[in-house]
Design brief:
By secondary structure, the chain is α+β, with helices and mostly antiparallel strands. It has helices spanning 5-21, 90-105, and strands at 41-44, 49-57, 60-68, 80-86, 109-115, 118-125. It is built from 2 helices and 6 strands. The longest helix has 17 residues, at 5-21.
Length: 128
């Protein structure tokens, strides 16, 4: 049974009014996807993360995440790129890299706020 066009347009108008009135663009009771939708935010999951590395960049410890986002029709034509997150000492970086790996293997997403190739904020996004 199809809803009438009048009911569908009222439901659409109601939903749009909620999105326009709410400055955070969050609907109550919907924690996922996050309300932080910005230009420099990337949400990624294990499918696009090929490696999680620990390295030293300019005398600072960093976790480097290698991402691949390519065309769906041919995996050999993907475009790999790296982004890095500066962390504290080596034990903190190691624990954080294990946490990132466990989180991604669980099937959840990561929210990465980027400034160029540098991660300025790392968010562990949970289930719905």
């Amino acid at each position: 049974m199809q809803p009438s066009p009048m009911k569908a347009s009222l439901a659409t108008a109601f939903l749009l009014s909620i999105l326009l009135i709410d400055p955070g663009n969050e609907i109550a009771g919907a924690p996922y996807p996050p309300g932080i939708s910005e230009f420099d935010l990337r949400i990624t999951n294990r499918r696009f993360v090929s490696h999680i590395l620990f390295e030293v960049i300019g005398n600072q410890n960093a976790i480097t995440i290698l991402l691949t986002h390519g065309p769906n029709y041919n995996a050999f034509k993907d475009v790999p790129h790296s982004i890095h997150f500066f962390c504290g000492d080596s034990t903190q970086c190691l624990q954080l890299s294990y946490r990132i790996d466990r989180h991604l293997r669980s099937g959840y997403n990561l929210g990465l706020q980027l400034q160029g190739s540098r991660i300025t904020r790392l968010e562990f996004l949970g289930p719905q």
